[in-house]
């Protein structure tokens, strides 16, 4: 049995992702998962742990040269922190250019599948058609980034909610996050005068420890980062981070858009961006939400390279309930309406 919250410790990514091979298509986790909030949290495993390990298990079953390009996962049951995850890979197709796998994940006996995902792989290719919006992160967000470097910002909180921020300020304690160094940009100067639909959160990340030159391993590092504090950001932007009654991931999708040169972790390159310094290359996750309804919220994110290349798109649907029962009480309705009255008007387009 794992010690309580044994996954809340700094650990190199290569050690975090390791799997024990049971047979050629069945694998078992070794490292304990991060538990958001540790002893003051809900005692659940961080969703990004099972998400990236399921994809890594699928990677063990494809031919060399096939790289992840699209992963969609469904969270069915909360992950336990003290029992290994077992990953069963099902081969759907081995094609000439694309291959597909389904991974079903179990944990506690008799509980059934706790997570399932579809992983699509493709051979590398180039195209003369390569179009994206131009982006200079340090210019667009100069109100919060000017004169800063990634390490000027605090480590992401273990739980990104107001009571945990207060506790952290009072005690100085923050739960150690394995696998990645993640920094949360203080966005007040950008967000405070904006409507919730126009607010943004930037998270900067890189791996703890070096990675061997395995492209799929690097892609799994990005998958692990993709879920970092995602639904908390939605709740905070709509100002219900202190009143939600239930929260949990439902469906999580990640699409990789570029070749591997831009997606690899490691040494700095030749750009002049503050994301590319002497200590290594950082990636920037730009997060927002444009819809909450029916007890659910939609999380969007784009991941940017230091030079402004759009590398990854992330979409997540999650449960965000602000009522204690399916039908809201008059007091609950009034409380939400009062919050909405304080929202700033939308930006003019």
Automatic annotation (TrEMBL):
Span of domain Acyl-CoA thioesterase-like C-terminal: 211-320
Keywords per UniProt: Hydrolase
An example Gene Ontology biological process: acyl-CoA metabolic process
Stretches with biased composition (Basic and acidic residues): 337-349
Top-level division of the source organism's lineage: Eukaryota
Region (Disordered): 325-349
InterPro entries cross-referenced by the UniProt entry: ACOT8-like_C (IPR049450), Acyl-CoA_hotdog (IPR042171), Acyl_CoA_thio (IPR003703), HotDog_dom_sf (IPR029069), TesB_ACOT8-like_N (IPR049449)
Signal peptide: none
GO MF annotation terms: fatty acyl-CoA hydrolase activity
Record-level GO cellular component terms: peroxisomal matrix
Residue intervals of the Acyl-CoA thioesterase-like N-terminal HotDog domain: 41-121
Pfam families per record: 4HBT_3, 4HBT_3C
Similarity section: Belongs to the C/M/P thioester hydrolase family.
Protein name: Acyl-CoA thioesterase
Organism expressing this protein natively: Oleoguttula mirabilis
């Amino acid at each position: 049995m794992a010690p309580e919250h044994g996954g809340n410790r700094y650990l190199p990514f290569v050690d975090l992702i390791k799997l024990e091979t049971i047979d050629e298509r069945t694998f078992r986790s070794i490292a304990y998962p991060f538990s958001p909030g540790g002893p003051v949290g809900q005692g659940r495993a961080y969703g990004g742990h099972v998400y990236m390990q399921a994809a890594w298990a699928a990677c063990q079953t494809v031919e060399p040269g096939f790289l992840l390009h699209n992963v969609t996962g469904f969270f069915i049951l909360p992950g336990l922190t003290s029992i290994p995850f077992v990953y069963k890979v099902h081969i759907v197709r081995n094609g000439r250019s694309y291959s597909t796998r389904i991974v079903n994940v179990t944990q506690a006996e008799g509980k059934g599948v706790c997570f399932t995902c579809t992983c699509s792989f493709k051979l590398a290719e180039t195209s003369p058609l390569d179009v994206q919006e131009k982006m200079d992160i340090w210019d667009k967000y100069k109100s919060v980034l000017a004169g800063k470097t990634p390490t000027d910002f605090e480590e992401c909180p273990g739980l990104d909610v107001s009571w945990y921020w207060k506790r952290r300020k009072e005690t100085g304690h923050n739960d150690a996050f394995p696998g990645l160094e993640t920094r949360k940009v203080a966005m007040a100067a950008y967000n405070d005068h904006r409507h919730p639909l126009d607010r943004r959160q930037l998270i900067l990340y890189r791996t703890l420890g070096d990675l061997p030159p395995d492209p799929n391993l690097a892609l799994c590092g990005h998958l692990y980062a993709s879920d970092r504090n995602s639904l908390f950001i939605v709740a905070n932007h709509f100002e219900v981070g202190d009143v939600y009654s239930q929260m949990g991931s439902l469906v999580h999708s990640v699409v990789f858009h570029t070749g591997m040169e831009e997606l690899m972790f490691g040494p700095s390159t030749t750009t002049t961006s503050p994301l590319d310094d002497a200590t290594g290359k950082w990636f920037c996750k730009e997060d927002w939400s444009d819809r909450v309804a029916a007890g659910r919220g939609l999380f969007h994110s784009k991941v940017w390279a230091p030079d402004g290349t759009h590398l990854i798109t992330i979409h997540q649907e999650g449960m965000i309930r602000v009522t204690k029962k399916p039908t809201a009480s008059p007091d609950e309705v009034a409380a939400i309406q009062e919050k909405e009255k304080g929202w700033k008007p939308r930006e003019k387009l």
